[in-house]
TrEMBL record:
It comes from the Bacteria. CDD domains: MFS_MMR_MDR_like. Its main location: membrane. It holds the Pfam family MFS_1. Keywords: Cell membrane, Membrane, Transmembrane, Transmembrane helix, Transport. The keyword Cell membrane applies. The chain crosses the membrane at residues 21-47, 59-77, 89-108, 114-139, 151-170, 176-198, 210-230, 242-259, 280-303, 315-334, 346-364, 370-395, 407-430, 450-471. GO terms for molecular function: transmembrane transporter activity. This is EmrB/QacA subfamily drug resistance transporter. It is found in: Cell membrane. Residues 23-476 form the Major facilitator superfamily (MFS) profile domain.
């Protein structure tokens, strides 16, 4: 068994079988809405710019406002779930996100849209931060937990490519306003289902973690850090004075937060949680793999658009094979792989497949053929993600105490979000620099820049493989049971 089997007396782990799965579907629906929103908005950015008159520089704030709020609040939101009750935080996030989506759709000015996007980020953080913690308490039995995490991992990782397709359809067929308006019925229905199928859990209470200075320090550190990555670092470079100054501010805030948590009587984030090699290693892998994967989906979309001439809808259709393969593995086979081999070996194999796919993408030429140069890459990425991400999610919650499940859930989300933002900024900068210094023709120089970033992404994900091989050493809890003893051991657990 590789994840905690203890649950708080007030958690929904004791729910009946059918209602637990309905609760899981509700949680996944909430997560899907959050994930879809990110890529749907990216597809609609040109239409938003034309309609509201954004400049090229100010348009970035449609994305950045969301990322700063989302990335900055994930860790705090996860801990609030432990203290105030995870269902309370989940439903509050749904309400905030849905209301903010309506304001986004109604926006008729730049300022209103940016503010509404910030509020969307707040709601998204509250909603998504507690989901994984709720899943492990709903499904303490190893086999069911592996299956449930597989479904969650599919939604969290593959939902983005569905968003590319949905964004293209809504923007071209109706208007960009509807990429936000569709969240109203989805959010309202998910909120009703949450109250119906997710049992209310009693949190530890604010008295167990009322650490206002710690909350201010970590939220400020993460928001400043994400802002540094998506704004001055991406636009001015990593050695620009403004970038270095804000990086220094981020590090000072983080150092102050660590000192505060080490000395506080009731810390917001108990530092003891990092004593687990499994949890620490899983979060490092999450940051590195997110850096490589998120950057490649973004740059891969640009390759399809700028080099091969695809429109938004064609890009969405092009990425569908990744979603299909990842979904098939995550939902149907990930649980069997984890129960047969333990989580560590699928994690290593999946990450290795991603490395191979990224390396293969460096060979896509200017006049590339989708079926020869792109489809094999997307299939490998789907295979790798479908195998490794469910195992990684399970490992990130292994050995976590029930009272820290929300914190651990928010932590893995934070590492993924910060890793994705950092990876995108680094890879996009490297790609642009390589293109600018190339002496080849414009299209060849553009492709050369993408190739360079694909290669760097492969190296980043390869580093996560090294961590999985060294830091994530198997323990008795992470050892797979013998094939003929699976049912007996799971039943005993």
């Amino acid at each position: 068994m590789y994840a905690t089997t203890d649950t708080l007396a007030t958690t929904p782990a004791a729910q009946g079988g059918r209602s637990r799965w309905l609760a899981l579907y509700t949680l996944c629906a909430g997560m899907l809405m959050i994930v879809l929103d990110v890529t749907v908005v990216n597809v609609a950015l040109p239409a938003i710019q034309d309609d509201l008159g954004f400049t090229s520089s100010s348009l970035a704030w449609v994305v950045n406002a969301y990322l700063i709020a989302f990335g900055g609040l994930l860790l705090l939101a996860g801990r609030l779930g432990d203290l105030l009750g995870r269902r309370n935080v989940f439903t509050a996030g749904l309400i905030v996100f849905t209301a903010a989506s309506v304001f986004c759709g109604l926006a008729r000015s730049e300022e209103v849209l940016v503010i509404a996007r910030f509020l969307q980020g707040v709601g998204g953080a509250l909603t998504s931060a507690v989901i994984l913690g709720m899943i492990v308490t709903l499904f303490p039995e190893p086999r069911e937990q592996a299956k449930a995490i597989g479904m969650f991992a599919f939604v969290a990782s593959a939902g983005g490519s569905i968003g590319l397709l949905a964004g293209g359809v809504l923007t071209q067929a109706i208007s960009w306003h509807w990429i936000f308006f569709v969240n109203l019925p989805i959010g309202a229905l998910t909120t009703v289902l949450a109250f119906r199928f997710i049992e209310k859990d009693k949190g530890l209470g604010l008295g167990r973690g009322t650490d206002v200075p710690g909350a201010v320090l970590i939220t400020a550190a993460l928001m400043v850090g994400v802002f540094t990555i998506v704004k001055p670092a991406a636009e001015l470079g990593w050695t620009a004075p403004r970038t270095l100054l804000l990086t220094g501010v981020t590090l000072v805030l983080l150092a102050a937060f660590i000192v505060r948590e080490a000395t506080a009587a009731n810390p917001l984030v108990p530092l003891r949680i990092f004593r687990s090699r499994t949890l620490t290693g899983a979060n490092l892998i999450q940051a590195l793999s997110s850096s490589g994967m998120f950057g490649i989906f973004f740059l891969g979309s640009l390759y399809l658009q700028r080099v091969l001439g695809y429109d938004a809808l064609e890009i969405g259709l092009a990425f569908l094979p990744t979603t299909v393969v990842m979904g098939l593995l995550s939902v149907k086979y990930s649980e069997k792989l984890v129960m047969r081999f333990g989580p560590r070996r699928p994690l290593i194999v999946g990450l290795s497949l991603i490395v191979v796919g990224l390396a293969l993408f460096t060979q896509a030429p200017v006049g590339g053929n989708y079926f020869i140069h792109v489809l094999p890459v997307l299939i490998l990425l789907g295979l790798g993600g479908g195998v490794c991400f469910p195992a990684l999610m399970g490992l990130s919650m292994a050995d976590v105490k029930p009272e820290d499940a929300g914190l651990a859930s928010g932590l893995i989300g934070t590492m993924g979000e910060v890793g994705a933002a950092l990876g995108l900024a680094i890879l996009a900068t490297l790609s642009a620099t390589r293109t600018a210094t190339s002496t080849k023709s414009p299209l060849e120089a553009l492709t050369d820049g993408y190739h360079f970033s694909f290669a760097i992404a492969a190296v980043i994900v390869a580093a996560s493989v090294a961590i999985a091989l060294t830091v994530m050493r198997p323990t008795k809890q992470q050892t797979a049971p013998a094939p003929d003893q699976d049912d007996l051991l799971c039943e005993a657990a």
